[in-house]
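Notebook entry, cofactor series.
This is the third protein in the set we're modelling with a bound small molecule. For this one the ligand is S-adenosylmethionine. I'm keeping the input format identical across the series so the outputs can be compared line by line later. Sequence and SMILES below, as received.
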Amino acid sequence: MPAEIQAPPNLFREALVRSGYFKLRTKLAAHGLEMPDADLYRPLFSPWDGEPSFEKDYRLVKDHTLCSRDRCYILKMTLRQALISQGDVFECGVFRGGTALLEAIAVDASSSRKVERRLHLFDSFPFVGLQVSKICWAHIDVDIYQSVRDCIQYIYPKLIPGGMMIFDDYGFPSCPGARRAVDAAFASLPEVPLCLPTGQCLLIKCAV
Ligand SMILES: C[S@@+](CC[C@H](N)C(=O)[O-])C[C@H]1O[C@@H](n2cnc3c(N)ncnc32)[C@H](O)[C@@H]1O
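Returned structure with ligand:
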């Protein structure tokens, strides 16, 4: 999503965090039971707000990405699962490289599993000469109808069963074409696009 129309920070929520309101609320709601990560209930468990291993990665990428913390968290966690399977990883829409770096860190961390794979990164140049047969995960962050449609046409047939596509712009009013492209493409396919509260859309390829 273009930088100038990113969602504004939720100042009211930030003020509640700082005041200790959520800590107290969590303690009361848990009826005195010990809550792991009690600080991260704001009001629901929000690991993107400080879970240590995510925080370490996010600090490296945050100045280079338009994607918010929660969206980066969805990327990291879905990719972690996808990397159990074979197949290459794609990102379409790299811009300054923030989410691409996040993906590179995850792919690198999984490389000891001895699965041969590549991370393919695209930003506004033709898809030429690619020899890719299997894709396990793809991040589509290209804003506009035609680009999202082209990405689906190339990636979907190569996506393995259980493989995932994450569409960044699906729920943003600034990118109506992104949602239109996803809904049109999957209207006649078995997969159901799942709109997330982050504004992203998760698509998991069916096994049939
Ligand atoms: C919102 S930005 C990507 C943000 C990035 N993922 C980040 O971490 O901040 C969208 C990018 O998509 C690229 N783009 C648009 N259409 C494209 C296409 N057909 N193929 C590849 N990239 C495209 C644009 O050049 C732009 O850099």
